[in-house]
Structures are given as structure tokens and as C-alpha cells.
């Protein structure tokens, strides 16, 4: 079993002191780009950064691409059929270099699958990489045979597996990624992620920005060697100082002076982001992991830990043509963190256009909370000493694929109290199969903002406790729950539940 000690603090010693997702208390930094080069901090557990200095990379010279929407190879009355291939390719990720990356169908990050609630999607995945893979559709309500478990592997060099997604859930902002145990940290870092947008008529009838004004954005960080290649090692959070949006380092994106819908995905291994506009102006949060909130929420920032999603509407009609506006990461950073990680991308208002889209005062009716009959407690803990190797646990145990940690009766509604028992390291908590509701954070009921909707991943600062409620229906079988900071999961912070 691969073990690394953690500075692991990964993702985010930075996130430990971050302000809430409502934007209260957030320091909004200058909207002008930083051109100063900053030396990479050296920390125990991470090597001294070498290779391309992030401060030397020109910002806002590459255009952020709109991710390609994958077309099905065949459709029937009930089902859309796709074929996808995992393989290496070369892409211009930073200006002037061709970087070798992992791709789905040649796209970095992977393409967008457009799905509809009640209509099946079947994807035949072929693995042409030199390591085994397992494709997990994050946030999906699927049979365990198609969940992409860490030991349910596709052989390298051309192995194939077919995944069936019934889509028997309401609209949601889903994504897919490798989940092969001990390998996923590196394969995801090198690019094995993709977007899966599940739509339904409830969402479609609202009149929200759509079509070319509905843009998924995958945000993550990276580190590059002197040849412009991705450099991967565990515990390397502080040296991953290049921020990528849709596979480009600090890109720009041209917009019209009208409303846009941005579905933002944090696909980083470890880093949390708190997204805000560079001028501190508000935007409208309309949804999160499991789709739309009950009603829009106006805020100045939103916090996403790895695996979480935010669905926002930005109205650029308040800006004159010619405006350049940054999307920034305003999370409280650890001492010595360079300014580059505070910049994400630049919006350029280049034209005017008519806008008939709206953001209704009521978005959806969320499912009623059922009476809970079972309560459970979970402790997340990892070694924070200097010893090698480091270990990570849920309820004092490392992941064991031959052990069932929690047995759940089908149809049961349960309340889970999850505590981060570390003093420094942040974690988050992802449950496969189900969406959940966040009831409390730190003993305080959740009544507004991002955590009032349907969630599948929740952030926990050091010492923090959250209370979640979920109903386990649809499918029986074995599923995971784990920390979604990939290095922590690789070190053992995963467990298995069996729905019987």
C-alpha cells in the first residue's frame, strides 16, 4: 500500500481558516494580474519546487476553451450509447509548451456528456493507458456494478468495461473520474476527469441562461517541470501553483454583456478554492452538487473543496464593453503562498447581445426530509507527525476492500455525524450512491446558502463536525464513502457500506 506523510494538510492548510461560502469576511484582492515571480515555499513532506516558475507564465494569453460536448454513437428509444477511450495526448496547457496529459476521447479535461433524467446512458470505456483505471460517475445514483469502485478495474493496454447509468434522479451537476485505488491521485492529476450534466424538465422550463451561455468550468492546480510536463508527487500541494481552467493556465474567456451560467467544478486533488469576482461584486448562486437550490442565493463568493460544484449566474450587462474582470480565488492562504494561486481566469466583455434569460425567484421544490431511524458517527483522522509512512483512517481503520464497514437496510433514512479529528489538516466527505442534505455545521443548523441544497461532498475544516441526512434507496450493493482529497483517500481514508 502506497504511503506518504502529509503535509497533507493538502488542499489546504489554506482552507482551514477560510471564510464561509456566503462571502462574509472575505478579503477581495486587487483585480489586476500579478506579474511578480514568487519563490515556492519549502515545507516538510514536499520537495523544493523545481521547473517552470509559475510567476513567469504569462497570464490571460490562452483562450479558455468551451469543453466539447460528446455526441452519442447510437441512440434508441430509451438509451444513448457512447464509446470513450482513455489515452495520452499532448496539449498546450501553458503557453509555448506541449504537455503530455491523460484524456477521455482526446480531451483535457474530458468532454461533456449531456444526459436527461429518465433516459439511460451506456458508456463503453476503453483503457489505452499503461495503468489500470476505474471510472466513477461522481454524484450518480447507479447500480454498484457501474459505480466505478476502486478495485473494479479496467485492464491497461486496451481493456474495456461498459457502464450503465439509469439517470433515475433529478437534474444534477455530475462529473466522472478515475477511482482505481492508489492510482487515482496521479491519473486524475494528469487529466482523467470529465463533465456529466444531468438535465430534466424542471430545470429546462425555468428560462435560465442556456446553450452557449451555459458553460462548465473545470478548475484545478498543477506543477510543471522545466520541459513543460506535469510533475506529480504526493504531498506536493504547496508547489502546485499553476491554476488551470478547462485545461489552460490562467486563460481568458470572452463574454457578451448579458447573463451567463457557469457550472464550476473543483477537480483538484487537494486544493480548495473560494471563488469571487475581482471587483467584489455579487453573483447569484443557483445550484450545487445535486442541482438547483430551492431559490437563488446572492453572494460575493463560494467555497469549493475538491469534488464540489457550484452553479452560478453572472450578469455582465452591468459592465461596459471592454471591461476585463477576473475570477479570483480569495481563500485565506497559508503564509508564503504566492499570489498566482489567487488568480483563476479573466472575463473579457467584448460585445452586447440580447438576453431573454431569467433567474426566477423560485427554482425548485427540494425533496422533503424523511424521518430518520438510524444515527451513526464517523471520525476522519490522518497522521500529522513527521513519521513515514503516514496513515489515514475513518473510525480508526484504513480502507480494506475485503471489509464491509457499515451495513445499511435498504430504504432507511439515516443521520450521519462526521467529524474531522485532525488539528491541522482539512478533509471533506463524499458518499457514493446517494445525495444528502447538510443539517448542521458545528452544531448550527444550515438555513441558507450553498449547503441548503442536495449535496454529495461536504467540506470539513480541522476540528469541524457536520451532520448529514440521506435516504438509501434505488440500489442494493457495496459502495464507498471517503475523503475526496485524493491523496488522503489513497492513504486509506475510505470505507465501504453495503446496502442490503
TrEMBL record:
Q: Identify the InterPro entries for this entry.
A: Cu-oxidase-like_N, Cu-oxidase_2nd, Cu-oxidase_C, Cu-oxidase_fam, Cu_oxidase_Cu_BS, Cupredoxin, TAT_signal
**Signal among the record's keywords?**
yes
- Which keywords does the record carry? Capsid protein, Cell cycle, Cell division, Metal-binding, Oxidoreductase, Signal, Virion
The yes or no answer to whether the keyword rRNA-binding is present is no
Return the broad EC class. oxidoreductase
User: Which domain of life does the protein's organism represent?
Assistant: Bacteria
- Residue span of the signal peptide, if any? 1-36
- Membrane spanning segments where? none
Which terms does the record give in the GO molecular function aspect? copper ion binding; oxidoreductase activity
Q: Which family does it belong to?
A: Belongs to the multicopper oxidase family.
Q: What is this protein called?
A: Multicopper oxidase CueO
Amino acid at each position: 500500500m502506497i504511503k506518504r506523510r502529509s503535509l497533507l494538510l493538502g488542499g489546504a492548510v489554506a482552507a482551514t481558516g477560510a471564510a464561509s461560502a456566503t462571502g462574509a469576511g472575505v478579503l477581495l484582492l486587487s483585480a489586476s494580474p500579478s506579474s511578480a515571480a514568487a519563490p515556492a515555499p519549502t515545507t516538510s513532506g514536499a520537495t523544493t519546487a523545481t521547473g517552470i516558475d509559475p510567476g513567469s507564465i504569462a497570464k490571460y494569453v490562452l483562450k479558455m476553451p468551451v469543453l466539447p460536448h460528446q455526441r452519442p454513437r447510437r441512440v434508441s428509444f430509451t438509451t444513448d450509447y457512447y464509446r470513450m477511450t482513455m489515452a495520452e495526448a499532448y496539449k498546450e496547457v501553458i503557453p509555448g509548451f506541449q504537455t503530455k496529459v491523460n484524456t477521455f476521447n482526446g480531451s483535457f479535461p474530458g468532454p461533456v456528456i449531456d444526459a436527461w433524467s429518465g433516459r439511460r446512458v451506456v458508456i463503453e470505456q476503453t483503457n489505452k493507458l499503461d495503468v489500470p483505471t476505474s471510472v466513477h460517475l461522481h454524484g450518480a445514483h447507479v447500480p454498484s456494478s457501474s459505480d466505478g469502485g476502486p478495485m473494479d478495474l479496467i485492464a491497461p493496454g486496451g481493456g474495456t468495461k461498459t457502464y450503465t447509468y439509469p439517470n433515475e434522479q433529478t437534474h444534477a451537476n455530475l462529473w466522472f473520474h478515475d477511482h482505481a485505488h492508489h492510482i487515482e491521485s496521479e491519473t486524475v492529476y494528469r487529466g482523467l476527469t470529465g463533465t456529466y450534466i444531468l438535465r430534466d424538465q424542471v430545470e429546462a422550463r425555468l428560462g435560465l441562461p442556456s446553450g452557449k451561455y451555459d458553460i462548465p468550468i473545470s478548475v484545478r492546480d498543477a506543477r510543471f517541470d522545466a520541459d513543460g510536463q506535469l510533475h506529480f508527487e504526493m504531498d506536493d500541494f504547496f508547489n502546485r501553483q499553476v491554476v488551470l481552467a478547462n485545461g489552460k493556465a490562467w486563460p481568458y474567456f470572452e463574454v457578451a454583456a448579458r447573463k451567463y451560467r457557469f457550472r464550476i467544478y473543483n477537480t483538484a486533488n487537494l486544493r480548495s478554492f473560494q471563488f469571487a469576482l475581482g471587483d467584489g461584486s455579487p453573483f447569484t448562486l443557483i445550484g450545487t452538487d445535486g442541482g438547483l437550490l430551492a431559490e437563488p442565493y446572492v453572494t460575493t463568493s463560494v467555497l469549493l473543496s475538491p469534488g464540489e460544484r457550484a452553479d452560478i449566474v453572472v450578469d455582465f450587462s452591468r459592465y461596459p464593453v471592454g471591461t476585463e474582470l477576473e475570477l479570483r480565488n480569495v481563500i485565506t492562504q497559508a503564509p508564503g503562498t504566492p499570489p498566482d494561486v489567487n488568480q483563476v481566469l479573466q472575463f473579457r466583455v467584448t460585445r452586447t447581445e440580447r438576453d431573454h434569460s431569467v433567474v426566477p425567484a423560485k427554482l425548485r421544490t427540494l425533496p422533503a426530509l424523511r424521518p430518520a431511524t438510524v444515527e451513526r458517527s464517523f471520525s476522519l483522522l490522518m497522521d500529522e507527525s513527521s513519521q513515514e509512512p503516514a496513515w489515514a483512517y475513518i473510525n480508526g481503520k484504513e480502507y480494506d476492500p475485503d471489509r464491509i464497514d457499515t451495513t445499511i437496510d435498504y430504504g432507511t433514512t439515516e443521520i450521519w455525524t462526521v467529524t474531522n479529528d485532525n488539528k491541522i489538516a482539512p478533509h471533506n466527505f463524499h458518499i457514493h450512491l446517494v445525495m444528502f442534505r447538510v443539517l448542521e455545521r458545528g452544531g448550527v443548523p444550515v438555513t441558507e446558502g450553498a449547503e441548503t441544497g442536495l449535496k454529495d461532498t461536504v467540506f470539513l475544516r480541522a476540528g469541524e463536525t457536520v451532520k448529514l441526512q440521506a435516504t438509501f434507496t434505488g440500489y442494493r450493493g457495496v459502495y464507498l464513502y471517503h475523503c475526496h482529497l485524493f491523496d488522503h483517500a489513497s492513504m486509506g481514508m475510505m470505507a465501504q457500506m453495503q446496502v442490503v
